C-alpha cells in the first residue's frame, strides 16, 4: 500500500460514498420503517429482553439464522442503530458499542491478545489505558512494551512474533504528540500485526485511521461523539483496512476461517468476548450518543478553530511559560497533524505556568471554563492532570506521558471564542494578582 496517500478503501455502501460527515451523521443508513415503528428519530428500546411467537424463533435468533434481538446484553435495537450509524459515519465495515471507552478498548484487547502475547503501545497514552495494560492484563499473561510511538523504528524493533497488536492514540493526551500513521500503517501491513488507534480526540471528519492502514479505531463516545458530556460510552470500529486472515490464532483466526473474513474481527469481538464479559452499552446511552453524533462535525470545526485561537493567545501571555497545541507551527507534531488531520488539529490545548500552585489559582479564577476531569464536552473544561488523572502514576510515567506539575489541560468547548480567550486572560491575571 502507498505510504504517501490514503488507500482507496471503499465504503461498504458504495451509493453513499460521497456523502459528507454531517449528512451521514444525521441520516444514517436508509432504515426500513414498519407500520408500528415510524422512522426518523430512533426510539429508545428500554427492554432487557424481547418476545417471540414461539421457541423455534428464539432458537433461530440464538443460532444466527435470524437477526432479531433476544436479550439486551447481546444486542439492543437502539444500540445496534448507534453501531450502524458509527460504522457508516467512519466508513468502517462494522462497529461494536461498549459501556465506556475503556470497555471498548478492553474488548478489542481481549479479542486480539492471549496469555503469552505482547502489546506494543505508545508511552504517551491515556492514564486509564496505562493502568489496564500495566496492572490488569499482566495478571492474565499479557505483557505490554511501552515505546516512543513517534519513532516508527522503535515500534518496528519492539514488534515481533508475540506481538498481538500495536496501540497508539491519534493525538496523545496530554502530551499532544501525533505519530506517523503512514509508517505505522505500513509496518502493521508488512508484519501482519493489527494497528489499533484510539481516535477519541479526533472523531470524523478530522481523521480516518483506516485510510493509513490502521485495522481498528476506538472511540470513547463519552467525549466528542456524544458531545454534551451526558453519558459514558465507547465504540470500536473495524476500518476494513486489515486482512483478518493474517491472524493465525485465537477467536479472530477461527472466525476468519468460518465466515466472510471482512467481518471476522467484529464477529469474534462480539461473539467470543463482548457478550460474555458484560460491557454492553444501554439503550438510553445509545440514544443520547446518536443525538450527539448529529452535530459532531459542527462542534468540532468550531472547537478546533477556537483551540487554535486560544493557543495563539496563550502564547502571547506573559504569564504562560509553554503552550502545547499541534496546530501551532513550532509544535514538534505540527507536520504530522497537518498531514493526517482534516479541518483542524483537535481541540485540546495545554499550557504551563510557573508552578502547580499558580495553576490551581488560575483554575479557581475561571468564570466560564469549568474544573472538570473530562474532555470533548460542549463546555470548555480544565484539569490539572498531574494531581488528578495521573495522581497514582510514578513521576517517570507521568513525565513520559508528557504530564508536568505546572501544566493545565484545556478541552475547548463550543462557547464563543472571544469569551473563552477572555476568560483565560482574566483568570491568569487574577492568579498573578497578589490579592487574587
Ligand atoms: C476518556 C478516554 C478514554 C476512556 O474512555 P471512557 O469512556 O472514560 O472509559 C480512552 N482514551 C482516551 C483518549 C480518552 O480520552
List of distinct ligands in this structure: pyridoxal-5'-phosphate
- Strand element count: 12
**Name of the top-level CATH class of the largest domain:** Alpha Beta
Taking all Cα atoms into account, the compactness measure Rg is: 22 Å
- Quickly count the domains: 2
In round numbers, the mean pLDDT is 93
Segments where pLDDT lies below 50 for 5+ residues?
1-15
Number of contiguous helices: 15
Using the 3D structure, state the CATH architecture of the largest domain: 3-Layer(aba) Sandwich
Beta content: 5-15%
**Main sheet record:** 7 strands, mixed
CATH superfamily of the largest domain: Type I PLP-dependent aspartate aminotransferase-like (Major domain)
Q: What strand line-up does the widest sheet have?
A: 1-7-6-5-4-2-3
Bin the helical content: 25-40%
Instruction: List the helices and strands in order.
Output: HHHEHEHEHEHEEEHHHHEHEHEEHEH
Q: Roughly how many Å apart are the termini?
A: 58 Å
Shape: globular
Strand-pairing-aware structural class: alpha/beta
What name is given to the CATH topology of the largest domain?
Aspartate Aminotransferase, domain 2
SSE topology sketch:
Blueprint lengths: L20 H7 L27 H8 L14 H14 L3 E5 L2 H12 L5 E5 L4 H10 L6 E5 L4 H7 L4 E7 L11 H11 L3 E4 L17 E5 L13 E5 L11 H9 L5 H14 L5 H11 L2 H21 L5 E3 L9 H7 L7 E5 L3 H9 L5 E2 L9 E3 L11 H6 L6 E5 L5 H16 L4
Parallel strand pairs: 2-3, 2-4, 4-5, 5-6, 10-11
Antiparallel strand pairs: 1-7, 6-7, 8-9, 9-12, 11-12
The protein binds pyridoxal-5'-phosphate.
